[in-house]
Specification:
- By secondary structure, this protein is of the alpha/beta class.
- 40% of the residues lie in helices and 20% in strands.
- It is built from ten helices and 13 strands.
- A six-stranded mixed beta sheet has the order 6-13-11-9-7-8.
- α1 links the parallel β1 and β2.
- The N and C termini lie far apart (48 Å).
Length: 291
């Protein structure tokens, strides 16, 4: 593909799964930008094609996860000088099911460790070396960043506050190793730690553990009330892997019997805020955003 001059009114969007790419797409279009979408075949919702069919300011190109060279060539041909990552790419996809092209294979071999920050940071550097600046994934979505305070009718009770305090210490340690962003706590004991499976699966695993204990009639000193604590990494790169909460998180918590969710202000995106708060209130789940 021929390399076109960089167009200032053009934004590249590397789209993963979920609603995040669509929210960012809407925000960028509201700013008058033409959005060139690199839709990942293994992750991006096919709804992206329908959106492009209705809006001439959206240009969609479908790529496989391992096609880093093609991504760069496509952005060059489209005149993209700035790009943003939005939407989850399942960690197990990154490290198991992709077929990397030569450029990505070379990059993977150069990594000291294959955690998310190391991989995405390396990809960001490759893009930057090719004249494509990767910008913050929250740049057009700042109103969706969590603000300090209690979001729901019910504030955390004394037990939940103790679990939050303990959980934040554990979660920050885990996040510091780039393993995950979420822990599930009960009676100041860690029940589940997020790894490659993602937040909602971690919550479900904690709920399943307690359900199994109940089914087997096992006595336990642990409270059956679960508190979910989600944090950003100590040196969170806002260009990728920013903590995200949505209605699916509340649904997973309700199913698991979790009663409290603690988030960090300014570094966590909350999608569909009104629906999230309404669902939490109906389930008597407390959501607090604490510094």
């Amino acid at each position: 593909m021929a390399r076109a001059p960089i167009l200032e009114d053009r934004l590249g969007l590397i789209a993963g799964n979920g609603r995040f790419p669509f929210l960012l797409l809407d925000a960028a279009r509201a700013h008058g930008l033409t959005v060139v979408v690199a839709a990942i075949k293994e992750e991006t919702d096919a709804e992206m094609n329908k959106r492009a069919a209705k809006d001439a300011g959206i240009r969609v190109h479908w790529l496989s996860l391992g096609e880093l060279s093609r991504l760069i060539e496509m952005f060059h041909a489209e005149g993209v000088g700035r790009a943003v990552m939005a939407g989850q790419v399942k960690h197990k996809q990154i490290f198991s099911s992709i077929r990397p092209d030569w450029r990505l294979a070379k990059l993977l071999l150069s990594l000291r460790t294959r955690n998310t920050d190391m991989l995405l940071g390396a990809i960001a550097k490759v893009l930057g070396d090719e004249g494509i600046e990767l910008i913050s994934s929250t740049q057009y979505l700042e109103p969706l960043l969590a603000k300090e305070g209690v979001m729901t009718r019910r504030a955390p009770n004394k037990t939940e506050m103790a679990d939050i305090a303990y959980g934040r210490t554990v979660a920050r340690g885990v996040a510091g190793f780039d393993l995950g962003q979420t822990v599930v706590i009960a009676a100041q004991a860690c029940v589940a730690v997020e790894a490659m499976e993602g937040t909602d699966a971690t919550i479900a695993r904690a709920g399943a553990l307690f359900a199994a204990m109940d089914d087997q009639g096992e006595a336990s000193t642990l409270s059956r009330s679960l508190t979910v604590v989600k944090v950003a990494k100590p040196n969170q790169d806002m260009r990728f892997d920013v903590p995200v909460v949505g209605i699916a998180t509340i649904t997973a918590m309700k199913a698991a019997g979790a009663t409290c969710l603690a988030l960090e202000p300014g570094r966590t995106l909350i999608f569909d805020v009104e629906a999230v708060v309404d669902a939490a209130n109906k389930a008597d789940i407390s959501i607090t955003v604490i510094q």
